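ARCHIVE CARD
Drawer: 12
Card no.: 0347
Subject: one protein chain, sequence and derived structure
Cross-reference: see card 0346
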Amino acid sequence: MEKSQLEKRERDVAFLITIDIDGRIAYISPRIVDYLGYNYKELKGRSILDLVSPDVVPEFRKIVLGAFGGSRNINRFETKLVGKDGDLRYVELSGSVVTTMEKIQYNLFIFDVTREKKAEIALKESEEKFRVVAEASKAAIFMYDSDARLIYFNPQLEQITGYSGDQLRKMLVWDWVYPSDRAGVERIAMARLRHEPIQEQYETRYRIRTGEVRWIEHRGNVVEYQGRPAGLITALDITERKEAEEELARSNAQAELYLDLMAHDIANMNQIGTGFLELAIGSPRIGPEEKELLERTLDAFQNTSKLIQNVKKLRSGRAEGLKLEGICLSTALDRVKNDFSSAKGRDIAIQVSQNGDCRVVANELIHEVFGNLVGNSIKHSSPDRPLTIDIRSAPFTEDGVRYCRVTIEDNGPGIPDGQKKTLFTGSAKKSIKEKQRHGLGLMLVRSLIEDFKGRIEVEDRVPGDHTKGVRFIIRLPACE
């Protein structure tokens, strides 16, 4: 072949190498010199096999050199060459025999396909990793196309649905969905392929091959498969969880019914008992000592009724979503002071000091928080000693967030350090005496404050000496 013809051919293909009948390089185009990193002198006269990756040398010798020996042409043979830097180049070869008066040579036309081949290898590796992960998954994983036919599914889909692989391939991806759920699943599945905004996670029901109904949690996404959008679904069987949730809901409903009945009956009995006690206290035949005992019994009835009301308020607030609003602390604290300052037979001084305007995010139950704390101070202090309760409030800022701090402290008997840690928890490890001492009121206090996104702490009024009284510190988010 004339040089001008070779140059023209080089413009039509990627590279050109001409080899003699013994496989040695007779001619190499300048472009392949750059491609492999060798100079012309390093390549001329060398065996073509020196440029071939060792693992494909036997195949190269058989196909390329064998074709040369048999005077046959080669069309698109894929192989690997090694550059001077040791890196692989993936190529496709086409070859033809050239016969002149002097000799027989073989022209190899080389097309670089490295980028395409590496992408193909990466895709195969990715698909293999996906397959390994999918088949090891406890969830069913499947892909579907725009015709709602399965492209891929792991063995778990067969286990969940009860259908064989052959049966699944003939079905649409919603054929095993419970009939009344099918339209919704179909709508989401097709909208996903159109890239429309949809709910990516949802629960549905499958009617499996045996006729049994199973609850399934779907998580979906859209991926590209062979140049077209495909739906990728992870389906997790949550039947046992749903059954447990339903059983819990039934148990809660039954417990709520029992609680309502019990609260109603106790409230009625308290009302009757309170009426009789008030009649007895007002009787002229009752002496001072008996009257004091009856008054204490009456207080116990009234405290029980108040506790029932607190629980009902808390339940009602949570059932309605605990609607929060801006509450003026000044109004709530003054109300608490008025409620407790006139306790019968007690020398009680309640002082309220407010530094700045405080409005917090809460609701009317905030009164129960402060009322329980002040009530506890009175209830657990000695009736023979004067009791002072100081209530202070002030705004403050922490990490750029505005809060209101309320402290309630007294000069009562205080709370030992060992009891402070479990004061608000209602722990089963508490002794009967401790439970009787603090009751359920402080549990409600903590629960309400947490609902208001606040925090409560307890400490000694005089640091290191719990016998000098207790201090409660409440922090509540302020209104913007």
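Annotation on reverse: DSSP finds 15 helices and 17 strands in the chain. The longest strand covers residues 213-225.
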